[in-house]
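Run log, item B.
One chain of 168 residues. Sequence copied directly from the ordering sheet:
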Amino acid sequence: MISAAHNPDDDRSSVPQETPPVRVRSSPLGKWIVAGMLLFGFSIVGALWLYWDSYTRPFRPLQAAIRAQYPETHPYVVGGRVKSHLNNSPNTLRIVLQQSLKDFNPEEDEKASLTRAIELYRIAQQHQDLSQYMDLEIHLVQRVPEQPPRQWSLKLPLKDWADLTTPK
């Protein structure tokens, strides 16, 4: 009789059997978490937009008037108390005008800076109710590439601005 020698390669029991893929059930909870995260993100963006809109709305006509007068500038106008937690903090209207490089240097030309500030005060008189403010700050800024910005600032009580603009 011919006997067959045992060959381990022929042993089918040592070959690993393929296991069927495990089916992962998608949980509806995960979908709700993702939807909630998206809803939270959209609500935060909406809240920030509403806050910024209500914060800047009272000053938009003045910003638009300044932009119309000086088209190559970027005006920013804001009003309120600098340190609102202090009772003696004056209500201040702040105008920041970012000038182009084609414009004059506000640090070197004091007369032109003062003239521009007086013109901004007059524009503010026409487009903003100044009776609720005690002080007016005007900042002229010129950003120069690779250098510190050139700045000129003047902060005066509104009655002093009126005195400054009246001819003598």
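Observations after the first pass:
- The helical segments are 28-56, 60-69, 110-127, 158-165.
- The mean pLDDT is 86.
Flagged for discussion on Thursday.
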